[in-house]
């Protein structure tokens, strides 16, 4: 009977209605969940992959190499199932269950693009590199200054309080350096440089007059306890999940905080198909998901929606959310959704060794290195002719057993010679800014569907002239610094990874001042659909050269605060 | 040091890419019939253990045989080698024995430790010279594969990591500068 049906529908709608929906449980989704729940919103967190419980599901991470069938290595089957994921530095016999099966998660490379993904609760916050560097106004004003992309609607002063807010909870170790291009944060005690790193740092400072400096990496590894997390045990197995909670992840930190409020409903196996737009209210009224286990379609409703599905995942959902009002995808009147895709270009640098410190060694496996902050194009004195923007270096020194091996290759003396450490070595690799180009884009491919019947993504992205010119300097400057630091046997490398492989993809729904040329406003709120907020990498209007996660986290907390304010004012 | 460093180190030693670990470079393979049907007999494993023990014998620390490097090689070649390298490895096991027969008039297993040592010193030199002069597309020398896996298997085994080297599962702290004296063992990881 009609009445019954209506009654059931009403009940179902009530059961499926929340104050807020967060799509994605990775590094930014976890923050959205925590902030919204702590502000009292009943929040549904949708995660397309399986559940991963902190500590309990970090299987095998306490095993020694010999306790693993392949001593940690990947197999041919791994490579066949995940030809893209298995190239990632963090992929090994233990961590591989945090990476998708590429055969089941198809996308199309119009140009080479390595899309590294973890579909599970916590997303890539489980395997991330953990380096955390604030942006400065060198970065936020870059687009306005040289005309690439559109001007950021915010400046450092807008985000600084939010870096201050998120950093102590994240738990970032680092040193205070007072550098204008790399602002200090609220840090835990820094990790220690080893002997060779200290020497290189001194010599770089002494030999370069442009203010360049080498500092210890700023990392979300906890050098002291952060609440019930950590401290770091210096095993250097972070990407396998840490049974000590020694580094920040959604699983260790934000999701438990959200759960403690009693306001979070976390739903794994929920592939978001689209955002449901209501043209009467001009707002999103909820999302439609596919339960990936039952293939059932379910609708959920809320007053606000946070999209934290990752740069490409978020673009996919927007482009797939078509309606009469938004035939090109939700909130896409600017035509910028899916455009301006960026990554960092990296995999280029130099290495060398030294006979110094033969009587020194180290203890522990420090899951962190050194950082050389950007020193190009940061003021008039450092302007470059060949390219705009800049790059930083990460790297470090270590002493491993290597050099004795070249001569004499069989027998007891040979074996024993392999058991001692060799020379100290030092290496750095560079991370460079990728400009926002309109034609670096993702689009939907409706002819090729994924296993849930959704269109796949065509990814069409490349590095261009500015990046290529910058790369030459990235390599040459690396070698020059190593030379001046007194290292020997210096070599350079450029492994030329494809875009995507740096796993810093961003930019597909950029922030901006003008709704005609950008998707989000200065509060990460969609220009076109006011109750939808996007605070993952998609929101970025430029890429800078710093590892981006801490900026996503700060923007997320800031946007959540704004969203709840607006809700209270009755504006949403 | 992490696993990736360990791999690069082995790669540095041999001046190239570690076979198996970087097999993706040559593209995505579909059928791996050779891989699935590949079978090492107990005799094969015993033979590999003796080769490995000759390369890395027991000294005042355990050797490759005690570390069961033969067993490791069998698993690794079966699961982590592409078909073309499996072929080189399997055929190499036979070639090694033939060469031994030619030189010593008996199989490798029948040779004394001294004969095995002398034979592998010569084979090691042959492999090294071949690897140095070979063109990029030429196949890897089978003995280079065997030696690579022997080193990898041994130094990641329990006796190799904890007795020949030093292994601390949970360091708990980092000290960037501590005294070192000649003879102190290197860290295993």
TrEMBL record, chain A:
Gene3D superfamilies from the UniProt entry: FAD/NAD(P)-binding domain
Cofactor: FAD
Ranges of residues in domain Glucose-methanol-choline oxidoreductase C-terminal: 436-555
Coiled-coil spans in chain: none
Pfam families membership: GMC_oxred_C, GMC_oxred_N
Alphabetical UniProt keywords: FAD, Flavoprotein, Oxidoreductase
A Gene Ontology molecular function term of the record: flavin adenine dinucleotide binding
Domain Glucose-methanol-choline oxidoreductase N-terminal: 111-344
Signal peptide: none
PANTHER family named in the record: PYRANOSE 2-OXIDASE
Family that this chain belongs to: Belongs to the GMC oxidoreductase family.
Name of this chain's protein: GMC family oxidoreductase
TrEMBL record, chain B:
Domain of life: Bacteria
Pfam families per record: Gluconate_2-dh3 (PF13618)
Name by which UniProt lists this protein: Gluconate 2-dehydrogenase subunit 3 family protein
